[in-house]
Structure formats: C-alpha cells, structure tokens
Records
---
Amino acid sequence: MTSPTTARQASEQGRVLADPTAYADNHRLHEALTWLRANEPVTWVDSPPYRPFWGITKHADIMDIERDNELWISGPRPLLLPAEAEDAIKRDQEAGIGLRTLIHMDDPHHRDVRKIGADWFRPKAMRDLKVRVDELAKRYVDRMVEIGPECDFVTDIAINYPLYVILSLLGLPEEDFPRMLKLTQEMFGGEDAEHQRGEGTTEDLMAVLLDFFTYFSALTKSRRENPTGDLASAIANGTINGELMSDMDTLSYYVIVASAGHDTTKDAISGGLGALIQNPDQLARLKGDMSLMPQAVEEMIRWSTPVKEFMRTATADTEVRGVPIAKGESVYLSYVSANRDEEIFDDPFTFDVGRDPNKHLSFGYGVHFCLGAALARMEMNSLFTELLPRLDSIELAGEPEYSATIFVGGLKHLPIRYSLR
Ligand code: HEM
C-alpha cells in the first residue's frame, strides 16, 4: 500500500487501530498489537472512512512524542474520527461554533485554560472531596446489596458512581444527573450502536453537542450571576489576561469535565472488578492485604486502558524510530499497546495487584496528562476499599461484553453473582 508521497509499510494488522469491533475482542486486538510492536511499531494505516495516519504502538515512542509538544501538536486532529466528522468539526471551529476543549488546544492557550480548573483537581481539593466520594462509594455498595444477589455491575453500579462524583464536584443538581449520563454516553460511545443517538451520523453527533451547549449555556449564565463556590463557578468566572474565557472555551470546559471524568472511570472500575473475578488469586491477595490498594488501582487502570488513543500532528518533517514522517501527518498513540509493551512491563499479560513499578500510559503523558487522574484514583480506591471487606463471594453470572469503540470504552456488560454484607 502506498501513501501519496512515499512507499510505506502498511500491514493488515495496523487496521485494528481503526476498527471499533477489534476493541470488543481482546484476543484479536492484542494479537495484532503484539505483532505490530514486534514487527512494525510505526505503521501506516489507510482505513476509510478515516484519513490515513501513522500507528504508534511502542511505549517509549509515545512518551517521546507526548514530551515534545512543539513538534507534535493536538490541535488539528486530537483523536481519530471519520473524515466527514473531522471536516464538520473544522468547519464549525472556523465558524466559531465548534467544541474546543483542552484536548483540542495547544500551548500557550492550553496552559492558560488548563490553569483555570487545575486547583480543583489538586491533592487539597481531593482531600476535601474524599468524604463525599466515600459516602457515594458506600451508597453504591449498599445498592449492590439491595439489588443482589445478581446485577450487571456496569449498568447498575459503575456507570452512575463516577458521574455522581464529577457532577457533585461541578456543583450540578442531582435531578440533572440522568440527563448528563445519557449525553456523555451518546458523545463518547458514538461507534457503539447501543449508546449512539439515532443512526450515529455526524448530524446525530452534532445534535448531542447542541444539547450540551444548551444546558451549559444556561449554567454559565446562572453561575456568573450567582457564583456558588463550585467547579462550575470557577469555570464560568475563569479569566485569561483579565478577560473572561470566551463562551466557546467555557462551554467546552464543562463538556470535557463532564464527559472525560465519567465513562473513563466507569471503564476502569468495571475492568478492574472483571479482572479481579477472573483472577481469584489476585482478589484473595488484595482482600488479604488491603495496603496493596494503591498498586491494585494502578494495575486496574493499566489493565483496562479506558482511553484507547489520542493523536498528535507533526509541525515539521521528522522521524519516529527511523521512519520518516512528514509535516502535517498525524500519529495515533495506542495507549492499549503501550500498556502491554514487553520492554516496559514484566509479564504484561498478567494481572498483578502488587505490580510496582507500573509506568502505564492510561492517563497519557506530558502537558495533556489527565487532569482528573488523582480523582479517578481516589474514586476507585474508595469503591474497592468499601466493597472488598464486605464481599464473601463473587463470580460471573454471564459473559462479559466489551463496547465497540476506538476511543473510550471497556466493558459494557459485566453480569455478576455475589454474596455481600
Ligand atoms: C480512569 C479514568 C481516566 C482515564 C483512563 C483518563 C485518561 C485520560 C487521557 C489518556 C487523557 C489525555 C492525556 C494525553 O493527551 O496525554 C486525559 C485527559 C483529560 N482528562 Fe482524563 N482520564 C480519566 C479520568 C478523568 C477524570 C475523573 C477527569 C475529571 C474531570 C478527567 C479529566 C480529564 C481532562 C480535563 C483531560 C484533558 C487534559 C488536557 O488536555 O490538558 N479524566 N484523560
């Protein structure tokens, strides 16, 4: 296969990177990624409806790219979308009506905007929030008791808990939570028929964005009139060089916080519990030594890798691992592959609750490193610290099912049977 300019290596295996169904089939996915790491770690992928890109599957290459945020920028193409959707977003952005969140921005604007919310995710804010998070964790474990002895852990528990945490941090009223849940799923689960709106067309996705805009425009107005000391008020009243953020940056901030903090954590929690059930020795080890919880949480996050990819675009001709990459071409950073890289992890396909060190890339790296990483860790810690001591037994009550997505995803159903106090 050739690109317009040079003959490029392009294997069949590279196409998994752009194939949502591959992410619902762990065996097929990891077989291809393992092959790519060994044989073609920088691979050219031309898989319509996506524009071609370079697939990057080695941990070290992803870190090098993310570290150099002048050579590699997010702006033009932060994640993989069909060409038609990329064009629609570009048109909207040029017209000043498109979503432009932190993940779409580059420094120095990115740095200024990130600073506005950053204090709300620092250790002090996390300590202040811990009581509320512990309370919510208890509420959801109690709920498991109420609905037991069987449930679908994803749809009954894991979906709601992180959303409640993040919407509590934002300061939104609890009666709005179900609406936010639906909107974030429609936005992030776009390739999966079960979650998408309508037929999942670009128009459907734009309608989801419009619903977000309508809701958060009203929120900005009310928080500017009456600041209430929550994250939503910090965003609504955030300034850069003494000026309020633009309406679009403000709206985009809400959207990224409400959406990035929710499905991702749900996937890490349910992927973590699924791994504990399928590795009973590791479950017993953790129950027997709860001081392993911080390492266990990291391992659950590595194991599940909820965010599959982000992209960067070259601002100059360059090369990765000796492969020439032209200015304007984009790289797809496969966090899923990096997290199974044999050069970084001993026995990468073993789920080990005591793994240390654990240099996973599930939260990315560099200036865009996940803003909510400490929050996600705390949420998971609280939930499993509440759940495990109360758990007498747990097993699968059906086949776990994975979502078909190339961006954010994981288990969409985890039927379980349990005995819980
Ligand atoms: C286990 C759960 C989570 C995972 C796996 C995850 C993963 C990621 C990844 C991979 C990135 C991009 C990093 C990069 O480009 O290098 C990111 C960015 C981000 N995440 Fe998370 N995230 C999680 C939870 C959260 C939570 C709870 C929040 C809270 C609101 C959050 C908010 C954000 C924001 C605002 C960004 C954009 C940062 C920027 O571009 O500067 N995430 N996350």
Note: The radius of gyration is 21 Å.
---
Amino acid sequence: MTFNFDQGIDRRHSDSLKWNKYGDDVLPLWVADTDFRSPDCIIDALTARVQHGVFGYGTTPHDFIAIACQRMQQRYGWQVQPEWLVVLPGVVSGLNLAVRAFTDAQQSTIAPTPIYPPFRLAAKLAGRPQRNAQMRLEQGRWLMDLDALAPQLDGSEKLLMLCHPHNPCGTVWRRDELEAQLAFARRHNLIVCSDEIHSDLILEPDLKHIPFASLSEDAEQRSITLLSPSKTFNIAGLGASLAIIPNAELRERFNQTRKGIVPEVDILALVAACAAWRDGQPWLDAQLDYLRGNRDWLVNAVNQLPGLQMQSPEATYLGWINARKLSVASPALFFEKHGLGFSPGRDFGDDAFIRINFGCTRATLEDALQRMQRALATLA
Ligand SMILES: Cc1ncc(COP(=O)(O)O)c(C=O)c1O
C-alpha cells in the first residue's frame, strides 16, 4: 500500500490551531500536530459512526480496552490488565490530574528542563513547588542527570515527571537510563508519571521504545503511564487518551481527583482511536519513513546555516534548534518577522532555542528553509 505524505492539504482558514495563529504571511511550524491526512481506516470508521446519526452519551468500547492491552503486549511484551486503564480526553489533563492526585501543596514535582510547557504549568496551576532537572548535551544526545539534582532535594519531592520520548529534545531513553530514573525514584520514594505520547514516533530504526512501567514490578507499582494515538495518527483534535495505573490505590486517587471535573471521552474520539490502533500500522510505518527523511534533510540543512545548530532527534517530529549564536533578543520573534512561526524556546525553559515541527510536507520544509536563509541574510 502506498501513502502520499507529499500531498499538500490547505489548512489555512480551517479550524486548525496551528494554521490560525498567524496571518497568511507566516508559515506555522509550531504546535505538535502534523499536516498529514489521517489514515483511511480512521476516516472510514468515523464516517460510518457519523452515518449512524445518534450521538448520545457513550461508554468506552470494550474493543478500545482490548486493543490497548494487546498493543502493550505485542509491542513491548508488557502485560497490562484491563482494569489498570483510565480513559481520558487528553494527555495534558492526565499530567494535571497526576500532580493534583499525587502531591499536596507542600510536595514538589520534579521534571526535566527544557520540557513541553504543560509539565511545568501543571505544577504551577496546582500551586506545587517544582524542581528542574537540567537536560545536557552529551555526545550528541540530550540527557538528564537526576543525581545532580540531589543537593537541591529536601525530602518534599513526591512526583517525578518523565517525557519519554522527550519533547522538545527528541531523546529516546535507553533501558539503563530508565533503570537509573527508577533507582532515583526508589531512593527518593517518588511516584513516576511517564508521558509516552510520542512513543510510536521513534525515528531511529535501531531503537525501541521501552515503557517505563515495563521495567519491573516496582516500576509498575509506582507509575502512571500516559498514552494516546493522537500524535501518531494526527487526531489530536479528537483527544482519546489513556492513563495506565497498575497500583489500585494510585488509580483510586487519580479517579477521585478526576470526578466531576474531567469529562468522559468523546465517542468519535474513541472510534478513531480504535481504528488507529487496530488498522493503522501500515500507514504509521510509511509515515515514519517520511518523517525520518524530513528529519535527516532538516538537520543537515539547519546545521549549514550560520548561527544555528541542532541535534538529530531520535524520536518525534520536533526539532530543538540552538539559536544562541544569533545576536537577537528573541529568536522566535526574529523568525516570525521573517515569516516563520516556530515555538519559542522560552516556553520550554530556554530562551536561546526555537522548536520546529517537521511533521509537514517536504515542500513546506523547503519553503521554511528558504525563509530561514533569507532571515539570516539580514543579520549578515
Ligand atoms: C509530551 C506531550 N504530552 C502531551 C501532549 C498533548 O496531549 P493532549 O493533546 O492529549 O492533551 C503533547 C503535545 O504536544 C506532548 O508533546
């Protein structure tokens, strides 16, 4: 089966958050959805459900639970019990619920920095103190040394928040790195919330995602894993997501915190999620090839531009570009004036960076590069 990821779909003046943020003169390369049409299996399943014509309150389809458990078993050899699953309308609500359910006002969360902004925001909104674990570049990979944080810890820490693979740095945590994170959690008696929303988007053919919770029974019992097909299959506007919480007491606390506040999941979202996870693999394989091509092309091109530097992300369709050498106050604002809508590094914790979304057609990426060249020429 062939899929055409070069097909340009006009999203301007649609309901797209990404394409509505700027005027027509700016190419949006920010929020993490792709410009690709979702696979036909999803569109067909949604069409059939819409044709039914009745949209009353729903229940979680048994299929969804079975497909999710089967997926964990087949992909990772991780045996997940159906009762461990909590269905959610989005992963960010899972991050916020985890902070509120598992910490009190005096208890701190720990998260990497830079990081996808809702990690920090979840702690801030709940009024929880937060410790930042600095990501550092080591031999071409962005890594996090949790033990370096030890002198700052005062025993109030309760929740370690992992982003696996990491947004914005693209790190796929290896087994020994996950083991070190688990050992740290054990030493400091931490619950671990592992956001694995990007886990299907591993671009390095030799790497495999390892769910944090699958490391051991201890990892399982102290963790909550957040998952969704939304990034993988470009259905983030629908939002079906999952928390996997093996520990019954943690699950109860999470469910209590959610009651009456976080709604049930949209019935169409669950139809899309079932179709994606059941039938979407051939499309996903093709998408990974396309994204890998985009990544390699982009990394090579960006590293030839004056003043910019980026590592090759091991996963995701997001690139973390170091613009420190440009003599501009805000790299994101500078590029925006030249027709490029990147995510500002400031939102993730480092002003000197911008984040690019390369989940777009190659033609869009080429257009972006030409705009970057023109922008940088004005600084010469
Ligand atoms: C690490 C991570 N978690 C969660 C989300 C968003 O999740 P949702 O749209 O399901 O709330 C994103 C989107 O970019 C993300 O990168």
Note: The chain has twelve helices and 14 strands.
